[in-house]
Amino acid sequence: MFIYSMRANTLKLVAVICVALTVLITLIVFVPTYAIPSQNAADADADVNYSYDKIKTESDVASFLSQFGWVVDAAPIEIKTVTIPSEFDKVYSAYNELQKEQGLNLSKYKGKDVERYTFSVTNYEGYEGTVYANVLVYRNRVIGGDICSADVTGFVHGFEKK
Questions:
Q1: What is the domain count for the chain?
Q2: What residues contact 31, with CB distance under 8 A and at least 6 apart?
Q3: What is the residue-level pLDDT of the chain in tens, covering all 162 positions?
Q4: How many Å apart are CA 110 and CA 112, to the nearest integer?
Q5: Residue 23: inside a domain, yes or no?
Q6: What pLDDT, on a 0 to 100 scale, did the predictor assign at position 32?
Q7: Which parts of the chain fold into alpha helices (H)?
Q8: Cα–Cα distance measured from residue 140 to residue 62, given in angstroms and rounded to the nearest whole number
Q9: What is the pTM of this model?
């Protein structure tokens, strides 16, 4: 048989620790979490989740683009294997900045061979020329891409509609 005795000071310390833990647990469970309000409409769109995985066929790429609201021709204009350069020049660095703006980064794929799918976009509003969607795929995952015009003085931007 064990007999354990405690002094009053030890009992008070244990009681204070128990009360403090109870209060902490109660606060964690019952205090609501508040979302930080977005500063502008672009931040509100950032809550939308897009699927970048399971890209195996041309139709998967077309479905990927449809998540962003783009309508493309059923058959791609071109499917080509391209190599991401091991060292980025000014052009590739600027293109990678565009990818970073849409949450992607080509730096991880330096020196890798990737598939580039090019589709013709049929529903680009406010522009009468030819518009292309380029999608870079590595191991069944979209790693980059853009929406661009065919004109030399045209535009290039990420997948989301402007």
A1: 1
A2: none
A3: 777 766 667 778 788 788 888 888 887 777 765 444 444 444 444 557 889 999 999 999 999 999 999 999 999 999 999 999 999 999 999 999 999 999 999 999 999 999 999 999 999 999 989 999 999 999 999 999 999 999 888 899 999 987
A4: 6
A5: no
A6: 64
A7: 8-30, 41-45, 58-66, 90-101
A8: 14
A9: 0.70
Backbone angles phi, psi at 131, to 5 degrees: -125, 135
Structure tokens at 130: 């030819």
* Rounded (10°) CA dihedral 75, 61, 111, 95: 90
Q: Token match 């030819």: residue?
A: 130
Residue position matching structure tokens 């809550």: 47
User: 127 is in which domain, residue-wise?
Assistant: 52-157
Is 64 within 8 Å of 52 (Cβ atoms)?
A: yes
Which residues lie closer than 8 Å to 56 by C-beta, 6 or more apart?
140
C-alpha–C-alpha distance, residues 144 and 52, integer Å? 10
Asked if the structure places residue 31 within a domain, the reply is no
Looking at the domain assignment, is residue 105 inside a domain? yes
Q: Name the maximum alpha-carbon separation found in the chain.
A: 92
